[in-house]
Amino acid sequence: MATSSFKAALARVLVHEGGYVNHPRDPGGATNQGIIQRTYDAYRRSKKLQPRSVQKLTAPERDAIYRRQYWDAIKGDKLPVGVDYVVFDGAVNSGPNQSIKWLQRALGSAYRGQIDGVIGLATFAALEATEDHDALIDRISDRRMAFLKALEPWPVFAGGWTRRVQNVRANGKAEAAGRKDVVAVHIAGAETKATIEDARKAPSPAPADAATGGGIGAGGIAGTLQTLQDQLTPFSAAGNWITTLVVVLAVSGAGLAAGGIAYRWYAKRRAAQLADALDAVPA
Questions:
Q1: Among 62, 74, 170, 251, which is least packed, fewest CB within 10 Å?
Q2: With pLDDT > 90 as the criterion, what percentage of the chain qualifies?
Q3: Of 156, 67, 135, 137, nearest to 99 (Cα)?
């Protein structure tokens, strides 16, 4: 891969990132041209320079950060045309580790390594064996969308994130085909960082355990009362109200137990779906 691909990919990413923003719901905080304050502070420290507002970010600083922290992290110079830009854009928005995981999972059975977000020999071997880069870009983009939908801020930024991924997908496929008929466009809200730290929490199984335990408890009480009823059979008045109570407890206990089992199934299924979307489990 030619080194010059970095400049072309960066130009597109900068269109998506826009200028200075400080959205209260953006987990990245104050951001200028896609560079958050925390990242800029770290860069300045590495150069023995005093920290300052990211609003004062210079073009050379910006390009150096993008090159080292994102492009080099995904080994962009070694990725196929089009795929390099798609993975690069994902790295900028959600972190290199996450974007590499999307690539690894998108490679499917051709990839024989761990889904670890570390690009190496196994990833490149799988890329070498993958000829249809259009389909690969589609799968990467699909994985990215599944991840975004699993984040807490999704309801707020769904429109911007979705349109950004659509544009990145189209640009990547155009590049892979050697076409120049698709351009990057800026979409308000699309620059908001989308990171694993803001993942939705899986539902707790505690309510299911409580419901199941309550159902079992109610059933136990019903059984005790049934024994008591047998002992009080000669006293019909007492026997009648105990019969009614036994039925109520038995029905409610069965309902609680069934509800608990159903919720536990839901919680387990939802947790598995979130883990898959967040690439916390192998494909």
A1: 251
A2: 60
A3: 137
